[in-house]
Amino acid sequence: MSRMRIALVGGLAAALLVVSAGSAMAAPPSSDTQNQTVQFTNRAAVQLTLATPLVDFGNVDPLAQYAAGGGNATVKANAGWTLSVTAPANFTETGGRLNTIPIGRLSLKPGAGAYAAVASGANAVSSGARTTNAGTATALAYHLELQFGDNPNTAGDQYQAVLVYTATTP
Fold it and tell me: What class is the 46-168 domain?
């Protein structure tokens, strides 16, 4: 081989060695990608608000039927919901006296529905599908109609019954 060829082959080999070494020491990539999964469990949830915590019919007698508004029961839920009210068997005197009046003297009208006598135990009120953040309001209205056989309350006492409203989701 001639000197020129040897020099040319040597130069080419040296150039290949430099290029090869340069690519082996190349800079790391300028970006990289990894995945991250974000997950959660969204449980069924419900919230109930009663706008009017006290309904007071005032002074009543068995000569008339009395009406009173109960405000709104507002339900917020992320699933289908039901609203019910649980009532005791009787109105009782606030001072702990023994006189009682049956809870059935009270009638409830939810929203645009009809009045129905409240029964001891659970009573269905309304239901609906999942709501917006504003919720679904059900207007509550009551009628009270006493009978002459109902005992008047003891002086200084009133009759009362605590109604427990409950909103549930499946």
Answer: mainly beta
